[in-house]
Design goal:
- The protein is of the alpha/beta class and 718 residues long.
- The protein has two domains: 2-181 and 200-216, no CATH class; 255-459 and 491-625, Alkaline Phosphatase, subunit A.
- The protein is built from 21 helices and 18 strands.
- The chain has helices spanning 2-29, 39-54, 59-86, 99-105, 113-137, 144-147, 150-175, 189-195, 199-220, 225-236, 291-298, 321-330, 353-359, 377-384, 417-428, 460-471, 495-504, 508-537, 559-564, 613-621, 683-708; strands at 240-241, 259-265, 309-312, 363-368, 388-391, 438-443, 476-478, 484-486, 544-550, 581-584, 602-604, 625-626, 642-645, 648-651, 655-656, 662-663, 667-669, 675-677.
- Strand 17 (667-669) and strand 18 form a beta hairpin.
- The chain starts with a helix and ends in a 10-residue tail after the last helix.
Length: 718
């Protein structure tokens, strides 16, 4: 019997050593230190699992269970590596809920075969060693009666109690290091353990098993009434922007009562509106392929009262679509992966912009040219305050039949954006515009990758605009299918395509990627043209505020990396993640930071993000709001903290990325150990950056608690 116990312990050693080897591999490929800072906490959790399985009397069952757990760990290693390379992100349990959406969008871009083979080689070595031990152990049969003897049970329970006790004591010790009222607690181990908001830091502190154990505990634990009281106090005492002197007198309310159209542009880049070159100073806007958006930027073909647009030239997003959408609708996205988890009552998120606009008497509509069930928008967005939630799978003809069949809303089988907008325009610009104002949020699709030819065989805008992008209007005509086709014998290339060829002619595959990308951009431009025409037909262009912003850079086929000249593994650069933001506001015609400019548009050079969309619109509309509900600020609001780079004084604005990291224009970090600087940054600058990070993460934590306990009915001034 004693020998059988020793043999079973060999299987425990197989699992523990295997887990530690895979842990070392994880930390190596992620660029962390050799082992977790709280190594013994992570080790204790491994032992907890090992001893639970040790209770199983059968050698084979024990080996199979251990191997399954190690297999899951291997999958996490690969997912973490992939996410860290693509986004700088790490895997979290909430991502499982969006597995279907992620699977639909995945391409070979996200498969790293060399890393996969190396991981499999390490894994097989571990599993084979375990199998050799299994063959050795099975020479002795286990007597189940003796296995569950009082003696063995006491030993097992004793060891398990010691290990669990160590884990609990470690958590209690960490929790004792700081308290919720401290201004710096967000940079502490307590914050990392109880929230895992800073995934990279949390993973490096606690290791794989500690990281996921913390996440599970955080999902099920109840912090109690004391934490809820502190949370309510935080929001009920938040500053109110727009009251007293807490506003920009020159801007606040200049668009009061206006209609509002927000357009989130999928994978959009500034070079999408250009001449086929890349100019980070935005001096290459072109009306050749995107005349309608060019008109919004430059004031052409619009009513006389809307000839000013504001461009945020440092608009930043290290993000994914659902995050950027949440930021532009709610003013934050602090709820993991899925809004469905927190939208549990009609009171939820009363501070979301659709709910606020609805309370002001607006018609509110959400319009997306994909199926509305993607990211479960059909479930969540009505509770955010949208009266209408419309997708391509929702629209019907005059006979009540679905306008687009299911096959036309599947991934890569997309409706041309202009056709979709023709069908959905009554939701974007309601026919009862003269009875009540409207707020509409429109998200396009076809500029989303992939941009390879095989992925565009059914993409409506790729089929429609492929020849047009290359040869232009003079050499193309629409055929019976609504596709532009070359009609001349010796067509001339567009200036756009000529410029693409001059830069990348030796890489014709990439030139094709760019053509397909631009087809999607043209589809969006056609849809924007339909919106502008409807506004002009109703004579309400000068009564409508329009805001366009991109969700993230064009990462498929490394389009953004190649056009902007960055290494394909670079995901931290500020410039790489700088994308379009265009605001057309009738009330801003007197707001011009550069009156000597010959351009109709004006620049806002402040570092900003999608978090700032909601507060900026509130300011223009004259809506007072509790600033503690929103992670951003109005573009016209001075920052709380300033810093100096050389002789230049700047606002310290920090962007919290759900995919990992905190970013300002000059300083960024993933773990508060290493700082990425775009320019020289002094210790004083880093100190100001850390202070602002603390403010942002504190707000993120309280917003999480607000959602977890559904405290909206008890919050004032929401």
């Amino acid at each position: 019997m004693f020998k059988a116990v020793i043999n079973k312990l060999l299987m425990v050693i197989y699992f523990v050593l295997g887990a530690l080897v895979l842990e070392a591999v994880t930390f190596h490929i992620l660029g962390f230190r050799a082992f977790p800072e709280y190594f013994w906490y992570n080790f204790a959790i491994i032992l907890v699992i090992a001893i639970l399985v040790f209770v199983v009397p059968n050698y084979v069952a024990q080996y199979v269970i251990y191997t399954i757990i190690l297999t899951v760990q291997l999958v996490f290693i690969y997912l973490n590596y992939s996410l860290s390379v693509i986004y700088g992100d790490l895997f979290s349990l909430e991502m499982i809920k969006l597995a279907g959406e992620a699977g639909a969008a995945i391409t070979t871009n996200f498969i790293y075969f060399s890393v996969m083979l190396q991981l499999i080689a390490v894994y097989l070595a571990i599993v084979i060693l375990g199998f050799i031990l299994l063959k050795y152990c099975r020479k002795d049969k286990i007597n189940v009666k003796y296995h569950y003897s009082i003696f063995n049970i006491i030993i097992i329970l004793g060891v398990q109690c010691l290990v669990c006790g160590y884990s609990i004591n470690t958590r209690n010790y960490i929790n004792s290091l700081s308290d919720l009222s401290s201004d710096t607690y967000v940079l502490s181990d307590t914050f990392l353990m109880n929230t895992s908001i800073l995934k990279s830091s949390s993973y490096e502190k606690f290791g794989t098993y500690g990281y996921f154990t913390n996440m599970i505990i955080n999902q099920i634990q109840n912090e109690g009434k004391a934490i809820q009281k502190v949370t309510l106090n935080y929001f009920n005492n938040g500053s109110r922007y727009g009251e007293g002197d807490n506003k920009n007198e020159d801007v606040f309310g200049v668009d009061q009562g206006n209609n509002v159209i927000v357009i989130m542009m999928e994978s959009m880049e500034w070079f999408g509106f250009g001449d086929g070159t890349y100019d980070k100073n935005l001096n290459n806007f072109s009306n050749e392929l995107t005349p309608n958006i060019y008109g919004l930027i430059n004031g052409e073909d619009l009513s006389k009262d809307t000839d000013n647009a504001l461009i945020a030239s440092n608009f930043f997003a290290k993000s994914k679509t659902n995050y950027s959408e949440g930021q532009g609708i709610i003013g934050s996205y602090h709820v993991g992966q899925s809004l469905e988890d927190v939208l549990i009552s009609n009171e939820t998120m009363g501070y979301a912009m659709p709910n606020v606009m609805k309370s002001l008497g607006y018609t509110t509509s959400y319009i997306h040219s994909n199926e509305i069930s993607y990211y479960k928008r059909g479930t969540t967005h009505g509770k955010l305050g949208f009266d209408n939630v419309v997708g391509a799978d929702y629209l019907r003809d005059e006979n009540g039949n679905l306008l687009y069949k299911d096959s036309k809303v599947n991934w890569d089988d997309w409706v041309p954006e202009g056709d979709f907008m023709d069908a959905a325009i009554d939701y974007v610009v309601p026919t009862n515009y003269n009875e009540k104002p409207f707020y509409s949020f429109y998200l396009n699709l076809t500029s989303h990758g992939s941009y390879s030819a095989s992925k565009n065989e059914k993409d409506g805008d790729a089929l429609r605009y492929y020849d047009y992008v290359k040869y232009g209007d003079d050499d193309c005509d629409l055929d019976e299918n609504g596709h532009y086709k070359v009609t001349t014998q010796n067509p001339d290339y567009t200036q756009w395509y000529s410029n693409i060829l001059s830069r990348f002619g030796d890489n014709r595959e990439f030139c094709e990627y760019m053509v397909y990308y631009q087809c999607g951009v043209m589809g969006l431009d056609e849809a924007v043209g339909t919106i502008i025409k409807r506004l002009n037909d109703y004579d309400i262009m000068d009564k409508t505020t329009i805001l366009l912003y991109s969700d993230h850079y064009a990462y498929y086929e490394d389009v953004a990396h190649t056009m902007k000249g960055f290494d394909k593994n670079d995901f931290t650069s500020i410039e790489l993640n700088t994308i379009p933001f265009i605001l057309v506001s009738p009330g801003l015609k007197n707001y011009n930071q550069n009156p000597e400019s010959e351009n109709f548009y004006v620049y806002n050079n402040r570092f900003c993000s999608a978090y700032d969309v909601v507060p900026t619109l509130y300011e223009l509309l004259g809506v007072t709001f509790n600033e503690n509900f929103y992670l951003g600020h109005s573009l016209f609001r001075p920052a709380d903290n300033i810093y100096k780079i050389g002789e230049q004084t700047k606002d310290m604005v920090v962007y919290y990325s759900n995919t990992g990291g905190l970013f300002s224009y000059d300083v960024s970090t993933f773990d508060f150990r290493t700082y990425i600087t775009q320019t020289y940054a002094s210790e004083e600058t880093i100190s100001v950056f850390k202070a602002e990070c603390s403010n942002i993460l504190k707000k993120v934590n309280f917003l999480n608690l607000l959602n977890r306990y559904n405290l909206y009915k008890d919050v004032k001034n929401k």
